[in-house]
Specification:
Blueprint lengths: L1 H32 L1 H7 L6 H19 L4 E5 L10 E4 L5 H9 L4 E6 L8 H8 L1 E3 L4 H16 L3 E4 L18 H9 L3 E6 L2 H5 L11 E5 L13 H20 L6
Helix pairs in contact: 1-3, 3-4, 7-9
Length: 258
């Protein structure tokens, strides 16, 4: 039995490695095939909606369905075409990026950490279309607001994972940073709380883990910010976090570390 168990674990780990390799191939191949179009649509910010359409309808679908992780999205409130929003969700997986693209038909821009630029092929376009932030640099964080304002003025939405990074996998939902809520209040745009249920199970940041299956998300009722001031950002932040936290606790069926 011990030998059988070791062999089973060995082959299981081989499967996890192949699953990871397959993911990175699916990330890279559509980018390489569509490279001329993606490059053309990133020359100017005016053509970003065309870039977003390709990313949402081709790149994200190839990865999600190719990984055997079809998205299932429940919408308690629908996004209106042409309106700007602040999209926020819990963050436990690289698949969160692709799933978020499936959430909204309205073009949006990610605010994310600059370290993702280092990912081959993906990083080339990431730095051209996303708002990058160096969380250790005060000037970088300040610059995010200026760049986000320009994108909002263009009619786009913004997406931020407010945990500020990927939490320890034993933590169900980490503390939220202020940035998304401060920005939403400043620009008087609704906050869209979103719960991602399956990212950790399907493709966590632990290398030898994951597998195919549904990738589910729930869009909760929006939080309006038009009558709020910056003094309300902490209350707003905690109310949004509580919505997502309770949903995750219900889904997991027990209280976990928070």
């Amino acid at each position: 039995m011990p030998i059988f168990g070791l062999m089973l674990r060995f082959f299981k780990n081989i499967g996890h490695v192949l699953f990871r390799i397959w993911f990175y191939l699916l990330v890279a191949l559509p980018i390489l095939v569509l490279f001329p179009f993606l490059l053309l649509f990133t020359i100017s910010e005016k053509t970003y909606p065309q870039f977003f359409w390709l990313a949402r309808n081709i790149w994200a679908n190839v990865i999600l369905y190719g990984m055997g992780c079809p998205p299932r999205i429940k919408r308690e409130q629908k996004l209106k075409k042409g309106k700007s929003y602040m999209l926020v969700a819990n963050h436990t997986s690289m698949l969160d990026i692709m799933l978020m693209l499936r959430i909204s038909r309205n073009p949006f821009v990610f605010v994310g950490k600059k370290e993702l630029v280092k990912i081959p092929v993906f990083g080339f376009f990431y730095k051209r279309v996303c708002i990058m932030v160096d969380r250790g640099d005060t000037r970088s964080r300040t610059g995010v607001y200026r760049r986000a304002q320009r994108r909002l003025n263009q009619g786009l939405s913004i997406c931020i994972f407010p945990e500020g990074g990927v939490p320890d996998e034993s933590i169900l939902l980490d503390d939220f940073k202020d940035g998304a809520f401060k920005m939403a209040i400043a620009h008087q745009i609704p906050i869209v709380p979103i719960t991602f249920y399956d990212g950790k199970k399907r493709f966590s940041f632990t290398f030898l883990s994951g597998g195919p299956g549904l990738l589910r998300a729930r869009i909760h009722p929006f939080f309006e910010t038009a009558i709020l001031s910056e003094e309300d950002k902490i209350t707003l932040r905690e109310e949004v976090r509580e919505i997502i936290l309770k949903e995750l606790q219900t889904y997991n069926g027990k209280k976990l570390a928070v």
